[in-house]
Amino acid sequence: MARAMAAQGYADTTIADIVREAAVSRRTFYEHFETKADCLIALYEAASAGALKVLQGSLDPVQDWRVQVERALAAYYTHLATHPALVRTLFVEIGGLGLPGLAARRRVVQAMADFIVCASEGAIAPVAAVTIVGGIHELVLMAVEQGRIGQLPDLVPATAALVRAMAAMPQGGDANAGLPRGRSAPPDARPRGR
Fold first, then answer.
1. CB 48 within 8 A of CB 101
2. Dihedral, 101, 103, 109, 112 alpha carbons, nearest 10
3. Is 4:17 a contact under the CB 8 Å cutoff?
4. pTM for this one?
5. Does 139 reside within a domain?
6. Total structural domains in the chain?
7. Which of 55, 80, 83 is nearest to 69 (CA)?
8. Looking at the domain assignment, is residue 190 inside a domain?
9. 101-108, long-range: CB within 8 Å, 24+ apart, which pairs?
10. Cα(55)–Cα(161) distance, rounded to whole angstroms?
11. Domain with 92 in it
12. Span 113-150, pLDDT tens digits
């Protein structure tokens, strides 16, 4: 689906285009997905999981997280910059899927935020982590709109400063303050190393 969408965009991509690019039958497609939108959501979640693995792999669990912020952000932005057509399609098209797309985006944002909380050893509160992820997401969207996906690594200094500023904010007594009801802070766990 990624190649088909990169060539002509989500709206103009048909199931026939997807199965042709994937070299599978329609039957195989429908064994995995009910709709084209389901396929896009699966692609979005898989690509996002790949980006999260890049972040996880960029950290050395032996070193203090504060000295690794730039390295992690550079790894993430460089990963995105090497896939401009996919980034353009996924960051823009997922929003056009309505509530299912929004739910997928929320799951991805939460997974990234959970990673930040854990990687910072709790120094960054859950709400602050969601704020960081949302800010980075908006910066990536701006780069998409401006045709500057290749320059995403230039955002490292500004976003590293944001991460450090959020870590310096007092958290108060409740790590879950400000989270929607039913959501709790992730368990205290260290990120996976290499």
1. no
2. -110
3. yes
4. 0.82
5. yes
6. 1
7. 55
8. no
9. 101/37, 101/40, 101/41, 101/44, 104/41, 104/44, 104/45, 105/44, 107/45, 108/44, 108/45, 108/48
10. 17
11. 36-168
12. 999 999 999 999 999 999 999 999 999 999 999 999 99
Distance CA 93, CA 34 (A): 18
Tell me: the pLDDT tens digits for 41-90?
A: 999 999 999 999 999 999 998 999 989 999 999 999 999 999 998 898 78
Q: Is residue 147 part of a domain?
A: yes
CA distance readout (Å), 123 to 2, 51, 116, 120, 164: 37, 22, 9, 5, 10
Alpha-carbon gap, residue 11 to 107, rounded angstroms: 23
- The domain spanning residue 160 has which CATH number? 1.10.357
Two structure tokens written together for 97: 């899927």
Strands (E), the chain: none
Q: Angle 84-93/69-81 helices, nearest 10 degrees?
A: 90
Reported as half-sphere exposure (CB side, CA atoms, 13 A), residue 172 has a value of 8
Report if residue 18 sits inside a domain.
Answer: no
- Eight-class DSSP state of 1: -
